[in-house]
Hints:
Distance between the termini: 152 Å
Strand order of the largest sheet: 3-2-1-4-5
Largest sheet: 5 strands, mixed
Low-confidence stretches: none
Mean pLDDT: 82
Amino acid sequence: MxxxxxxxxxxxxxxxxxxxxxQVVPPTSKKSQALAELxxxxxxxxxxxxxxxxxxxxxxxxxxxxxxxxxxFDGAATTSGGGVGVVLTxxxxxxxxxxxxxxxxxxxxxAEYEALIVGLEMAxxxxxxxxxxxxxxxxxxxxxxxxxxxxxPALVRYRTKAQQILQKFQTYRLEHVARSQNRYADALATLAxxxxxxxxxxxxxxxxxxxxxxxxPTHIKEDKWTRDIKARxxxxxxxxxKIV
Length: 244
């Protein structure tokens, strides 16, 4: 004999199974193929099969785009004090306004910066993340863009404060507009600068709409001599006079 006679537990199994026709076939299908064959053997009717989460698989997340708000600001400086006006407009046309009386003497550029900072703080408190800022002060807008240098020492602290708040927003845009496009904020700033209000006081102003006042027709009583003259003029008997 060329091969030694095996003697072990495996040998006994081989001898016991030798009377059966057993063939060893290596697997040729993957797990995905086996799952497909299983589903083909047992089809489902109108049923959804939940796909199991695979380790390390990222779930689809729907990202909600942050809406952009619009901030319009204006400042006014008069001999009776300064005033600021702010108009916040949301993506669904919701409007929030604010006006403040400045209880100190200031220049117009300082009032413009005050209005901007009031508007930015209001937007920040309302958790607004994206904002479009519009103002009619070319100086303020271009200084914040870095296009104009800040030459007045009094404006340096204003620009620094505004820049610090701007960094808290996800995105912001600065746009210069004509005064005619900023009438709402301008009216609020002018009103606040002219009213007489003391510290820690508030003034509530209600604006209502009103149509034309209805009045009774007025009849002017004429003297007899005027009626006679008009009658003669109408008849053409007085050519030297005319009604003026």
